[in-house]
Amino acid sequence: MISFVYVPHRRITEETLLNCRNLLSVILLLFSPAVFASDIIGNLKAFSQLYKNELGNVKPCANTRLQRYAVCANALRNDGNGPFILHHGEPTQNVAVLFHGLSDSPYFMRAIAANLHANGFTVIVPLLPGHGLRDADEDMEDRQLAERWQRHVDDIMVLADKFGNDKFIGGFSTGGALAVDQYLDDPEGISGIMLFSGALALTDNAESMWKIWGIKTIASWIDGEYETHGPNPYKYPSVAGFAGLELMDIIDSIRNRLEAGKRIEVPLFVAHSQADGTTPITGVRSLLANSEATNTFFEIDEGYDLCHADLPLNTKLVADMHFKTSMVNPNERCAVPKANPLYRQMMFMLNAFIDANTQKGATQYDVNRPAPIELPKPPPGLKQGNSLNGNF
To answer: Helix 145-160 vs helix 38-55: angle between axes, to the nearest 10 degrees?
Structure first.
């Protein structure tokens, strides 16, 4: 296995159609240069139907635009928490499915999804059960929560088949773990995996607690009435302990299958911070050791002190978040979202991964694009601390 490791300082809704706004969007698509095939409309309706079943009802989103199909609902905290698809009005060669992390929403995948869409992909960004809701207390103590996540991944991957030929699966944190879990369960038709702060390991304390008999019952008691509203409109203010244990069940299942001889036989793109105190980098390193393909590992030096939840964020996402800093202690590490200082370089490496592993490579850059600029040295004197915030 050859792995390209990037370390700084080294070499390197059916109901929406009833609304005038969405009806106009569909009309525009019908007359756009890429003719919007009727079967694609049906696939988008099917996507909406998945969430009508999950959320009770769906409604028109306030903001619509060409080549973006979003699903909104009164049950959601706001429209930005809803799932969406970035399309090209017709099936594409490549399809990417990106799952968000525990306690957050599809908002966190927007920038990465836009990059893949610019490279010719149809991009599906689902909403995991229990997330983005005004009231998530019942979901976050559901004994079948992990199974509900897995069933939703299954449903989305079946739908993804209808949007294109070569499927890439991935996501942020818990979304990354679910992507690996799906591949190990059903690798058929998956051409590659993309992980951003992939949750393939948790802290020693979290993993030790998971082994205690009856700990899920205790965690539910401690969680109490789960609070969904806080300083971030697109993320719950804390991670439910019970839900974190459900994630640990998935991580353990992944490990057991790898230990039994299962291997990752498709290319992996992995981006992870050495300073990640929520999902230690050892987890993705172990996964790479069980891979038999040529992989791309974008490993961010500890000196950047990049927090777990900040890796998929660019400056625009942080600005559009309108995070209420007054509601947290700004001096607490990872309390306030910050843009990944190496986000542009990470996208460069992701595009290189696309070039190498798709029939139709990156379309937004030509083959003579320059190498990444020389990276600045990380701020001196920063040390890794304990992450009290962030999402699994």
So the answer is: 170
